[in-house]
Amino acid sequence: MREVAVVGGGATRAGRREAGWKDLAQEAGKAMFEDVVNLSPKDVDSIFVGAAEPERFAFLSYVAPMVAEYLGITPRKVLARTELACVSGQAAIRYAWNCVATGMSEIAVAIGVEKMYPPDLAEAQTSMACVLDREWDGVNCFSAPPFFAITAQRHMYEFGTTKEQMALVSVKNHHYSSMNPIAHLQKEVTVEAVLKSPVVTPPLNLFDCCPMSDGAAGIILVPAEDAKKYTDTPMYPIGSGQCAIGNAINNLASLTEWVPLKLAAREAWRTAKITKDDVDIAEVHDCFTIAEIMEYEGLELCEKGKGGKFIEDGEPYIGGKVAVNPSGGIMGCGHPLGATSIYHTIEILEQFRGDVHKGRCVSGAEIGIQHSLSGAANQHSIIVYSRGSR
Amino acid sequence: MSKVRFEKIKRPEQIKLPFMLDFYPLQDEKYTKINQFFKNLKEGRLTTTKCKNCGKLLWPPRIVCSECLSDELEWVDLGTEGELYGFTEVRLGAPLGFVQDAPFCVGFVKIGGLLISARIDDAKYKDLKIGDKVGLKVVELEDGRVFYRFTPIK
Q1: pLDDT digits (tens, 9 = 90+) for B125-134
Q2: What ipTM does this complex have?
Q3: Is pTM, for the whole model, over 0.90?
Q4: Which residues contact A34 (CB under 8 A, 6 or more apart)?
Q5: Which of B101, B108, B128, B146 to mutate to test the interface with A (most CBs of A within 10 A)?
Q6: Calpha distance A305→A293 (Å, rounded)
Q7: Is residue A335 annotated as a catalytic residue, yes or no?
Q8: pLDDT digits (tens, 9 = 90+) for B26-36
Q9: CA distance B2 to chain A (A)
């Protein structure tokens, strides 16, 4: 296995976009290729397209060859679409990384695309309710908001977590996304505004929930030894962990402790030869405020049940114990499912380059992690990136 | 240069709801090997499969034991009374087919050694609490398909 580098990336503005699925793919592809030098689409030999539900959201299927064509790529080594719900984008990165590492590919693209605003929003919700087993959980209306609402209810019940603590996550992430020009939401919110926002599924209010978004983002991976041909500022995936336990509600390890996250994190630290204390930036999956609180715990940044206090103490802010979601997270940047992980990977690259608004810059960052979860939080996936080559 | 013709065309305003936009599972022998679950449910029995070889209680019901790969499974009753482990109310963001029902309660119910998701009917969010007793309710669609829900036991 050889070392691999991410040499560049590009993304669209996320949001409720006046653009179609293929428009988004082209915007991101152009931005991605313009971020590197000495590399054209014709040089790319492999492409992985993260797309969670183009069949439902945009009535498109078989999207990998289509994206390749639109971006001027003629894959000669490996291509596929990757689907792992909200982690589809990170799945694309994993395949691209593996293909370059094993020598199957010399230059691979991982691009995620999602168009989530059809003319009728209820149709999009129908797609979302098919992520959990449609016949046994989706049928009971368990799409993400009800599932995470009950997760929050149980966390509050078992550990005394409060709605105010959850609101603080939204305040932090909207604060950072207000300084991120590609974020879906670029306005600050207050605790009071979160608590007064419309109730979606109690105890979750609207500002406890990430928005659905249109968006696309892509990165290019090459062997580390070639990286400097394409950029002065590559970054390196140096370790990872991924774990899934169960799928139906009955078969989850626990509702209030994300065991697969803990296992994925420990595996990520082990393979990257780091400890959790080495992490400077954690881009984690804050699809709901309660999720980020449980991620502080699952990543073992704080004790089990103390995630609420961790944000109350300001620890996940820049300058605290670890900068969590300095991009603004999913809460602020938006959640175009198949592209989300790639947006946050590009964030780490830009942080390493010092190429972000100074109000949200984690200066001197050397190690960043990108975490995504999917389904009933039964699957967690982490990649560790280093600014320096190993 | 030829003249360009313009014509208005139609697409059907209404179509029968396609099965793949219908959340309820197909239930008869033609479509699923676990049709016994639905037959039992029609009789007011909530059941699942249990492995005769290793004894594992399996939910959702299935045809092969995911613990030992045996296909010698039997149907066992889960009872008709459960306990509310957690719940919420869908006020916004319901999918097509459920929009007209909102607001409605949903929850996770502990029953017969399992934790299963369900609609909680005839209940308001503010009146429910964790640990409440709930009883089995069977709903039937016009086409004869059935599904389980729960209602609070006063």
Answers
A1: 999 999 999 9
A2: 0.95
A3: yes
A4: A10
A5: B108
A6: 9
A7: yes
A8: 999 999 999 99
A9: 32
